[in-house]
């Protein structure tokens, strides 16, 4: 090979390996029941398998959404031009969902965040209609990024569905934000994935929610940040986390007095 061909081959190889190093979801376990995750190669199957995860044909490169796209819900909500999954997984309020990635590069350090958006029918939901409340977040603590914990836990993140939210269908938005280049303008990399669930046995709460195109801005302290200088002061972006615990006691007392109970005291 000529030296220029060798250079091209080396460049293509480097690009391919950096791309293949990114992951997509490998498996989703809802309340102990395993579900098939979406694979971008499904677009070559006819018919494509129907799964609970949203489809993203644009995700063949396992790539990311960048800060310049934060104002576009069709990109930042559930990844580029993603469309609703055809199935819905049933989950009891208060139970856990394990989300496993195929792989995650050690260098791609950053927070892991989870949100829910209430919908009438998850299988026909549109990214531009989704209103999210945050149910889980982890950034940097005890000298570890959330991504380090995810890798150490077999590429798996576990999220608990709040015990008191209203029954019905939701879109769960699970997201990793990789910050290895976030010191530069437009350098953060968002990897959002959406999953359809139907919550049963919940309460009556409808937390305040935010449209996908209002979750982040390019200059947020947790988005435009040099993680190599001050990781310990890292501030996770997006709205505050909704947590059932603060309201649970009041609701328990009320239900005890008025006998409207559906609360399980052992959850305390
Ligand atoms: C990690 O996940 C894979 C499935 O993707 C499973 O086969 C393996 O047993 C898991 N390893 C551990 C240590 O749990
Ligand atoms: Cu990368």
UniProtKB/TrEMBL annotation:
Per the UniProt entry, the Enzyme Commission number(s) are 1.14.99.56
Primary location = secreted
GO-annotated biological processes: cellulose catabolic process
Please tell me which top-level EC class this enzyme sits in.
Answer: oxidoreductase
Which reactions appear under catalytic activity for this entry?
Answer: [(1->4)-beta-D-glucosyl]n+m + reduced acceptor + O2 = 4-dehydro-beta-D-glucosyl-[(1->4)-beta-D-glucosyl]n-1 + [(1->4)-beta-D-glucosyl]m + acceptor + H2O
- UniProt-listed InterPro entries: AA9, AA9_LPMO
GO CC terms for this protein?
extracellular region
Keywords, A to Z, come to: Carbohydrate metabolism, Cellulose degradation, Copper, Disulfide bond, Hydrolase, Metal-binding, Monooxygenase, Oxidoreductase, Polysaccharide degradation, Secreted, Signal
Q: Where does the signal sequence lie?
A: 1-21
Q: Does the keyword Disulfide bond apply?
A: yes
Q: Which Gene3D superfamilies match?
A: 2.70.50.70
What would you give as a GO molecular function for this chain, any one?
A: monooxygenase activity
Relay the domain remarks: Has a modular structure: an endo-beta-1,4-glucanase catalytic module at the N-terminus, a linker rich in serines and threonines, and a C-terminal carbohydrate-binding module (CBM).
General function of this protein: Lytic polysaccharide monooxygenase (LMPO) that depolymerizes crystalline and amorphous polysaccharides via the oxidation of scissile alpha- or beta-(1-4)-glycosidic bonds, yielding C1 and/or C4 oxidation products. Catalysis by LPMOs requires the reduction of the active-site copper from Cu(II) to Cu(I) by a reducing agent and H(2)O(2) or O(2) as a cosubstrate.
Similarity field: Belongs to the polysaccharide monooxygenase AA9 family.
Protein's name according to its UniProt entry? AA9 family lytic polysaccharide monooxygenase
- Name its species: Paraphaeosphaeria sporulosa
């Amino acid at each position: 090979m000529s030296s220029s061909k060798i250079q091209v081959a080396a460049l293509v190889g480097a690009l391919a390996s950096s791309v293949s190093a990114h992951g997509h979801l490998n498996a989703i376990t809802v309340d102990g029941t395993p579900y098939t995750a979406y694979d971008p190669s499904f677009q070559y199957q006819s018919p494509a398998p129907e799964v609970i995860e949203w489809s993203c044909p644009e995700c063949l490169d396992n790539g990311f959404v960048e800060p310049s796209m934060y104002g576009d819900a069709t990109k930042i909500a559930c990844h580029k031009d993603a469309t609703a999954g055809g199935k819905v997984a049933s989950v009891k309020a208060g139970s856990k969902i394990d989300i496993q990635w195929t792989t995650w590069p050690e260098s791609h350090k950053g927070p892991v965040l989870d949100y829910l958006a209430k919908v009438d029918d998850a299988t026909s939901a549109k990214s531009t209609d989704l209103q999210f409340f945050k149910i889980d977040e982890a950034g940097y603590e005890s000298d570890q990024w959330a991504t380090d914990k995810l890798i150490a836990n077999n590429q798996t993140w576990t999220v608990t569905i709040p015990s008191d939210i209203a029954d019905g269908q939701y879109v769960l938005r699970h997201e990793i934000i990789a910050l290895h280049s976030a010191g530069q303008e437009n350098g953060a990399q968002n990897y959002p994935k959406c999953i359809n669930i139907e919550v049963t046995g919940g309460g009556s709460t409808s937390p305040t929610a935010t449209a996908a195109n209002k979750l982040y801005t390019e200059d947020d302290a947790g988005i435009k940040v040099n993680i190599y200088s001050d990781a310990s002061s890292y501030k996770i972006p997006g709205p505050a986390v909704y947590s059932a615990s603060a309201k649970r006691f009041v609701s328990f007392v009320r239900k005890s007095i008025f006998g409207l109970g559906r609360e399980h005291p052992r959850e305390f």
